[in-house]
Amino acid sequence: MSKICVVEDESSIAEMVRLNLEMESHDVTLVQDGAEALELFKRNFDFDLVILDVMLPNVSGVDLCRLIRKKSNVPILFLSAKGTTSDRIEGLKAGGSDYLPKPFDLEELLLRVAVLLNMTPKAGEEIITIGNCQVNFRTFVVVDTISKQETTLSKKEVALLQLFYSKQGEVISRTEILDKVWGKDQFPTTRTIDNFILHFRKIFEDNPKEPVYFISVRGVGYKFLN
Ligand code: CA
Q1: In the chain, pLDDT over 70 holds for what percent of residues?
Q2: What's the CA-to-centroid distance between 56 and ligand 1, angstroms?
Q3: 100 alpha carbon – ligand 1 mean position (Å)
């Protein structure tokens, strides 16, 4: 979970972005006016990421970016209807980390946020192999190299798979999974995890009823072998 500040005056976009980031377990502060954002950033600044619209009432996103850069190296993602090259350059020159022209694809926004927050794996770890399947942690696509069948994983599934992959051979408790994948503020039932595992087995196991990769450890959780 990360603390994200969204500065966007168009209510429909602001609410959509907020809702989707919250669904990804982020803590979102929404500000819809440039001057208000300026006051907020002057007071205290402890965000992990800032999403800035460029055209804002009273103080522009670019000016806000310059202010933030005086005190922080936090990743800043610009959102703007002004998608021309010169606007992009202005945003990046002011210290922006990335720039997404409107209208944008929500999935692209979430992926860029994930990259900026460094939640995606480093280069070289993007594609892993489990059995016959190749998993691309950047595109979330799993390809069965024999049947050529493709499956797209959800963000949570990727997060869970990354957790398993990082702890191969270790028993991971349901509590740890809930904590690391869902965060402390969300309370899915342990049944949710079991359903994720059932789905993984359908994708990766030759015989989902006799799993060799995603092993249940009775009363505790799961173990991933590869
Ligand atoms: Ca605007």
Answers
A1: 95
A2: 5
A3: 13
- CATH for 127-224 is 1.10.10.10
Calculate how far, in angstroms, residue 78's C-alpha sits from the geometric centre of ligand 1.
11
Residue 155 CA to ligand 1 centre (angstroms): 28
CA of 13 to the centre of ligand 1 (A): 9
Distance 72 CA to ligand 1 centre (A): 23
Residue 93 has pLDDT above 50, yes or no: yes
Give mean pLDDT, residues 160-169: 90
Buried b (16+ CB within 10 A) or exposed e, 156-195: bbbbbbbbbbeeeeeebebebbbeebbeeeeeeeeebbee
The whole-angstrom separation of Cα 176 and Cα 211 is 21
Which amino acid belongs to residue 15? Answer: E
CA–centroid distance, 167 to ligand 1, in Å, is 44
Which CATH superfamily is 3-118 part of? Response regulator (3.40.50.2300)
- Confidence (pTM): 0.55
Q: What's the pLDDT score for residue 199? A: 96
Q: How many CA atoms lie within 13 A of 19 on its CB side?
A: 7
Banded model confidence at residue 45, pLDDT cuts 50, 70, 90: confident
